[in-house]
Amino acid sequence: MAKMGEIQIYDASNEDRKYLYHQLDIFNHTKVSYDQNDPVLYFERCIKKDNVVIGGILAQMFWGILSIEILWVDEKYRNNGYASALLNDVEKMAKDKNCTISHLSTYDFQAKDFYEKSGYIVFGILEDCPDGHKCYYMSKKFI
To answer: What average pLDDT score do residues 104-116 get?
Structure first.
């Protein structure tokens, strides 16, 4: 814990995190109204084989924007269409909720080519992130 005068900096608890997200939601809502009942919709889908997770996608939607946080398929099961199935499933769910655009980030050693084949375009590149690599910021418009 760091002290600065009368304030303290410390590790956030679960309650602290919820409070911070809630406060940001309150502020954001003063600038942009939500066009869905819940401010954030979560799309969390998995594929299992023999009761073991072999792939999954974690995404969230707000303001008609889909944010892909994680898309992963076990190496043994890659190149079988599972990643495409997961991505298509979540994109359809988001579009059914009037989503208009999706965005994500991926590294040069991850899945940039896969996302490009899925219709995503690069709108930004962060060099040396991590050192010697690139982080690509990508988006896809649904309309």
So the answer is: 97
